[in-house]
Amino acid sequence: MRSTPTGQPDHLNASSYRAAVFDEAGVPISLNVYTPALSTPQTILTLDGPVEIYTAVDTLRTVKFSVPQSGRYRIGFAPARQSGVDGSVLIAQPQVERDDGKAPVPYQSTDSAGLTAQSNCASSPQELRSRFTRRCETTAGKPGFGRCFYEANQTFVLDTQALSVNGTSLADKLAAENFNYRHVDLAVNLVGTGLRSCDENPTPDCYANGTLEYDIVHEANQVGIVGYDREARRFDFGEGAIRHGKALTAERYLTLPLSGADTSLLSGTGITKTELRGRPLDGRYRVRIYESPALRWSNLEDIQLMIRYRYWSRVTSPTP
């Protein structure tokens, strides 16, 4: 939109703008022209006389286009020239989504990888198990030798700025209004009645072991670390992991605060892991549960992470 000599928006001579989609050769495959919505002026009285103040009008525009083939495409915006003067226009929150015949969804911010976190927690044990895929790994030079496991098809996102996991609130689980949240140690509890059974392997080793093995991979590439000013700053912590940790199979949820029995379980050898110590809580996590003769996968009901963490808190200096 053009401006008047005083710097106010020129509503009487609003310039149009174009939104176009180009292929790799720069050939437009879609071109649309729009006119900005006019804001409503409000008059206020000042010492210098009445002044018109304009309020901005946010307008949602939708550009529909079809591409002939897979490839790289560019989206561009340009204000039109009017009376030899370059126009200007403010574009905010552009978003590309598949046209499924429904109205556009609200804007969703993405991370540096172009991914967005969504609330999509499993609503039942069956749905939870369906989000894992059974795979087997092989050892080079030893065909048929390796281990099988159930691995999550997707990562889950922990965001301390929003105090959420996959969009689900953690307000009652994390210490809100603090910053720089970091791992201290972590334990895993696999919930489910009869998740382990030694019926098919009645050996002393099976009966003496109440755990199952797991991996957790923590992807912390360009994650936001919340600072004193409540703003997130991006850092690259790379990838960290807990390999072949020992998960509890307590057949129940661990409670908060921890009971004496739960504390005793977590203090067992190899249960609480420190491999992620010092890494940020923020990031993407992927879980793998290893198969064993004692595992009864169909009895898995939930996966519980017990995370001990530290953080910085604000200190206000006394007024002199």
Jot down its keywords.
3-stranded antiparallel beta sheet, 2 domains
Structural account:
- The chain has two domains: 11-86, no CATH class; 125-312, no CATH class.
- Strand 1 and strand 2 (28-34) form a beta hairpin.
- It contains three helices and 19 strands.
- The relative contact order is 0.15.
- 6% of the residues lie in helices and 36% in strands.
- The longest helix is centred in the last third of the chain and has 7 residues, at 260-266.
- The model has no long low-confidence stretch (mean pLDDT 83).
- The strands form six sheets. Strands 8, 9, 10, 11, 12, 14, 17 and 18 form an eight-stranded antiparallel beta sheet that branches.
- The protein is mainly beta and 320 residues long.
* Large-scale geometry: extended
Strand content: 35-45%
Helix content: under 10%
Calculate Rg over CA atoms. 28 Å
Distance between the termini: 50 Å
Task: Count every helix, treating DSSP H or I runs of 4 or more residues as helices.
Answer: 3
Q: Quick check: average pLDDT?
A: 83
Query: Runs with pLDDT <50, length 5+?
Result: none
Structural class: mainly beta
Q: Tell me the total number of β-strands.
A: 19
How many structural domains? Answer: 2
Secondary-structure element string: EEEEEEEHEEEEEEHEEEEHEE
Main sheet overview: 8 strands, antiparallel
